[in-house]
Write a structure and sequence with these properties.
The protein is of the alpha/beta class. It has helices at residues 3-14, 16-19, 24-39, 50-63, 138-154, 178-185, 244-256, 266-275, 281-292, 297-306, 308-314, 350-361, 385-398, 415-420, 449-468; strands spanning 71-74, 84-89, 99-104, 123-125, 128-130, 162-167, 194-197, 202-204, 210-219, 221-230, 234-235, 317-325, 331-332, 335-344, 367-371, 403-409, 424-427, 432-433, 446-448. The strands form four sheets. Strands 1, 2, 3, 6, 7, 8, 9, 16, 17 and 18 form a ten-stranded mixed β-sheet that branches. It is globular.
């Protein structure tokens, strides 16, 4: 074969390997296509399929050149639609523990007739993306998948393995949850030095300027309690002194007036120390007062009025969410129940909270018992220099002057399973929201286009730094 012909043959055969990574514009366009595809795959519990979404993201990784042997779709044999994608970009040092990029691809239910736009069509409008999962949590799932694609296209070989896990069931864990299932049945699949997950974003001021970048270090423990009162009942014309509805109502009123003690941990102390430099003077004074004296209930009450989330991060909270009782309008009630939902500070045993509820209720005829699985306890992961260093460096390049604020999630994520299994898990997205928020779980869920693209850049650079760092 002549030299020229042989050279042309070699170039054609090599194809993408010699073409190099795409341009910045082409890379962003490819990401937008990936994000659109993921959002528009219905992954609700009722009619959707996580497996279909996992397969679509796996196809993106394979097209970028990741070996098929480094990807797998995992689901119980009796739950074929609940597949999770787990993929690995191998590093140079096989002795180094991997990092894990975790995002869930299932979404909350959404009815077309309730939304202004089709919830399963990604709509870009006035600088916002709209669609179910556009923020929670397909934004991070798309960015993490795109990050691995870019690393592969660039020929980047990190020092340590990078694991990607796109999982199913975070929104409906009482039915099935991939992370819970994997940590119980195949713990090595998600084993890592630490994990990045949802749970924290950033705050914009009224002009749209980034003010605070959050990093979540721990989350409160979710636990429901059933409060129950009973009696023999009878005809409503013959009332007695033991009416279960009245008895339980009195108990719930006492519980509603009760405040659990305020307790700081490193994440919440760091959060309020940072916020005290950013909020109006009155709120700053109350935050500083609480930092000096956590028993200052007057300061806590004022902060609660300004922002209920502040109260939620300071203490265990228990609120009545459902009540059910009575069997006929003309009969004395025989049975009444109420669900009390508690969000418990890390390190506080569920049994201690149950005892405190019993003491506050102060009625031996009202039974208090936990329902469902007991909440998982795990200590907040440390905010070490290994974690915070890359965050500060990259954040200062993208958002000069932004305050980095540790947070404790008052909600629940799959991080609770990983933290409990020994994998320190941090919420970190770099995706900023205004005061109205993302409408996650609600109507017309959204994310600012700029926030998504900035988060893409931030996570790409932070993950690269983590993956190549020395221990």
């Amino acid at each position: 074969m002549p030299y020229r012909a042989a050279l042309i043959f070699m170039l054609v055969a090599a194809g993408p390997a010699l073409a190099g990574p795409p341009s910045a514009a082409a890379s962003e366009s490819s990401f937008r296509e990936l994000y659109r595809e993921l959002v528009e795959i219905n992954t609700t519990r009722s009619v959707g399929s996580c497996t279909r979404a996992a397969e679509a993201m796996r196809a993106r990784l394979l097209a970028a050149g990741l070996p098929a042997t480094d990807t797998q779709i995992l689901a119980p044999s009796d739950r074929p639609a609940d597949g999770a994608l787990v993929a690995v970009l191998h590093g140079r040092d096989r002795a180094a523990a991997p990092i894990l990029l975790l995002a869930h691809i299932d979404v909350v239910e959404a009815r077309r007739e309730d939304w202004q736009r089709d919830p399963f069509k990604l709509v870009e409008e006035n600088g916002w993306f709209y669609g179910r999962g556009s923020s929670d949590d397909k934004a991070m799932a798309a960015v993490f998948t795109d990050t691995v694609v870019r690393f592969r296209q660039e020929g980047f070989t990190p020092r340590r393995d990078i694991k990607l896990a796109l999982t199913c069931g975070e929104e409906t864990p009482n039915v099935f949850d991939s992370v819970k299932w994997l940590t119980e049945t195949q713990p090595e699949v998600l084993r890592a030095a630490f994990a990045l997950n949802e749970g924290a974003g950033g705050e914009l001021d009224a002009s749209g300027k980034p003010v605070t970048l959050q990093i979540q270090a721990g989350e409160k423990v979710y636990q429901d309690f059933l409060l129950e009162a009973s009696d023999v009942g009878g005809h409503s014309s013959r009332p007695t002194h033991n009416n279960p509805i009245v008895r339980l109502s009195s108990a719930l009123a006492r519980l509603g007036a009760h405040n659990f003690a305020i307790a700081f941990n490193p994440a919440t102390r760091g959060y309020f120390e940072a916020q005290a430099k950013l909020v109006p003077a009155a709120a700053a004074a109350d935050m500083q007062a609480l930092l000096r004296d956590p028993g200052n209930e007057a300061a806590a009450e004022r902060l609660w009025t300004v922002n209920p989330a502040w109260n939620g991060s300071l203490r265990t909270t228990c609120v009545v969410t459902q009540i059910n009782g009575g069997h006929a309008p003309n009969a004395l009630p025989q049975h009444v129940t109420a669900n009390v939902n508690c969000r418990i500070l890390p390190g506080v045993p569920v049994a201690d909270v149950q005892r405190e509820i019993v003491a506050v209720v102060a009625d031996e005829l009202v039974v208090v018992a936990p329902t469902g699985d007991l909440g998982m306890q795990s200590p907040p992961p440390p905010l070490s220099e290994q974690i915070m260093g890359p965050v500060r460096r990259v954040a200062s390049e993208i958002w000069p002057g932004v305050a980095i604020v540790p947070t404790l999630s008052t909600g629940a994520t799959d991080g609770r399973f990983l933290n409990a299994s020994g994998v320190a898990t941090y919420g970190l997205s770099g995706m900023f929201h205004d005061a109205e928020g993302s409408h996650a779980h609600g109507l017309d869920e959204r994310i600012r286009v700029r926030s998504l693209l900035d988060g893409r850049r931030f996570l790409y650079e932070v993950v690269r730094a983590y993956a190549d760092a020395r221990d």
